[in-house]
Amino acid sequence: MASDAIVVGGGVAGLVAARRLALGGRRVVLLERSDHLGGQVVALPIAGVDLDAAAESYATRGGAVAALAAELGLGDDLVTPTPAPAWLHRADGTAVPLPATGVLGIPGHPLAPDVVRAIGRPAALRAWADRLLPRRRGADAASLDDLVRARMGAGVADGLVAPIVRGVHSKEPRDLTVDTASPRLRAELAARGSLAGAVRALRAQAPAGSQVGGIRGGMHRLVTALARDAERLGVDIRTGVDIGRVTADAVEADGERLVGTVVRAFAEPADDQRRLTLVTLVLEAPALDAAPRGTGLLVAAGAPGIRARALTHLTAKWAWVAEALPGRHAVRLSYDGDPADPVGQATRDAATLLGVRIDSVLDSAVRTWDRGVRTPDDDIVSVGEGAAGTGLASVVAQAERTAAEVLTAG
Ligand SMILES: Cc1cc2nc3c(=O)[nH]c(=O)nc-3n(C[C@H](O)[C@H](O)[C@H](O)COP(=O)(O)OP(=O)(O)OC[C@H]3O[C@@H](n4cnc5c(N)ncnc54)[C@H](O)[C@@H]3O)c2cc1C
């Protein structure tokens, strides 16, 4: 069939690109291999409510996701999480609120009371000594772990940065390059002469307001709205397609050869993919009404008896989830790999982490995700995680940019 553009992959990136190309007047086919659209942004039906199975928020930086949602008529449903602190469950089994003025757990004010409370006075003093060190110390560190250890010591590296990086990036700090963790951190360190100074500078540059947002009813509403608008614009959306060879100007789909500008919106798995298991529980536990651990906790490595690496108290974090589950609580725990008996493990971990008795689990859902994609290195126009990096803010902005470039190229 005749088409101008063939988008392969129906996650958010593919849907954004297909819609933008159709808005630009192109005849577009979108091909999705699975039987549903959205990829990693997908509903999780539980206790009669559609929560999100993976991505449940977006970074507000850049404004691309909010602008797209507004274009799709979801502007009035953009929400921000409850401004309660997240907590840290420490290796000694106790919990403290996370220090407020950090970047990836690196404190901007190492002697602030919340930092001292989290890592103890000797470790906080060692971190403070960062300001006395030569500015070159750690400047060439390859990993975030090397940098933090060199400048602030093991207390900050193990006690604050590791649990946050594990919770946010699903990685160990030694496996995360400084530039991936925070692209401007190294330059600010060179300019300010200390890591704490660099962190304060980054915090000052961040726009006021919440760093993350969500959509009332779940991020998956973005997918429904994108698909509906793409169809309105005439995009030929096909799911359950058997995809064969993909080149820059043709795709084999269900044995048919489609010719046109190809936009690849899926990524090949990386060699070192990591499995992540998310366990969502809906609970009856009135003690949780007080949100004893704010919006949730990150867990330090070695915390006794705990296998989870993070817990999100969804009904404390999002007002819309609390409204949808009156008298009940939803929590989501994340695990590296595949825990045995995930619901039993998550119930035990939730009770310990939240410090409450859990008498009954009303409903539960377990989803696994294999994370880590390869960056494409061929001549096919590419959008999505492989080309943009992880996260909806990056993925949406890059898909919009790439579609605009395809339209300009003619
Ligand atoms: C557990 C988890 C939590 C997350 N939390 C957040 C969060 O809170 N905030 C945030 O911003 N981001 C979060 N993310 C990341 C975010 O969801 C992704 O970065 C984003 O959704 C990627 O979109 P994409 O379209 O590039 O890829 P995908 O969503 O992976 O879509 C790719 C699509 O291509 C299809 N496909 C694959 N191969 C082929 C093929 N050969 N032919 C045709 N189709 C194919 C797939 O079925 C899929 O539908 C999270 C991810 C996970 C897994």
Automatic annotation (TrEMBL):
Start and end residues of each Amine oxidase domain: 12-255
Give the highest taxon in the source lineage.
Answer: Bacteria
Q: Which Pfam families match?
A: Amino_oxidase (PF01593)
Do you know which InterPro entries this protein is assigned to? Amino_oxidase, FAD/NAD-bd_sf, Zeta_carotene_desat/Oxidored
Supply the source organism for this entry.
Microbacterium aoyamense
**Protein name, UniProt field:** Protoporphyrinogen oxidase
